[in-house]
Specification:
This protein is mainly α and 140 residues long. It has helices at residues 3-26, 29-52, 62-82, 91-129. The chain is 77% helix and 0% strand.
């Protein structure tokens, strides 16, 4: 099985499992569907980044990790504290909302990363392909 298909299958299975678990616990189909979709897309995008852009792995220094830490920290804070026990909702719904917020954060981070990587890649290939182009003003 090709690596891309295997990664897609893993993302779909994990997203489907998360969605099924949330539905089983909370009974809210829309919450389960959207949370499962977020997790499947987020994992799929993360696998895509690792497959297509392995050289862009985050480094080991604080300067490399600060934006990842900010993203993960704030999404975790929103999922655990924002959907807090002080809210008048059931524990099952609170858990489902926490998974939804975290899954949406994974998608946002991965989609933003891919957007920047594709822009950088397009800029570098565009600059090199135009290097040999001759314009009429260059011949004067």
């Amino acid at each position: 099985m090709q690596r891309a298909r295997r990664h897609t299958l893993i993302a779909l299975l994990l997203g489907g499992g998360i969605g099924a678990g949330i539905y089983w616990l909370s009974g809210y189909a829309s919450l389960a569907l959207v949370a499962g979709l977020c997790w499947a897309c987020g994992l799929g995008l993360t696998f895509r980044i690792g497959r297509l852009y392995p050289a862009y792995a985050t480094g080991e220094t604080w300067a490399d990790k600060r934006w990842t830490g900010l993203s993960v920290g704030l999404v975790t804070l929103a999922a655990l504290t924002g959907v807090s026990p002080a809210l008048p909702i059931s524990e099952e719904l609170r858990l489902g909302l926490g998974f939804l917020v975290t899954g949406a954060g994974v998608v946002a981070y991965a989609a933003g990363t891919i957007a920047v990587l594709e822009r950088v890649e397009d800029s570098s290939t565009g600059a090199s392909s135009n290097a040999g182009t001759s314009y009429s003003a260059d011949d004067d």
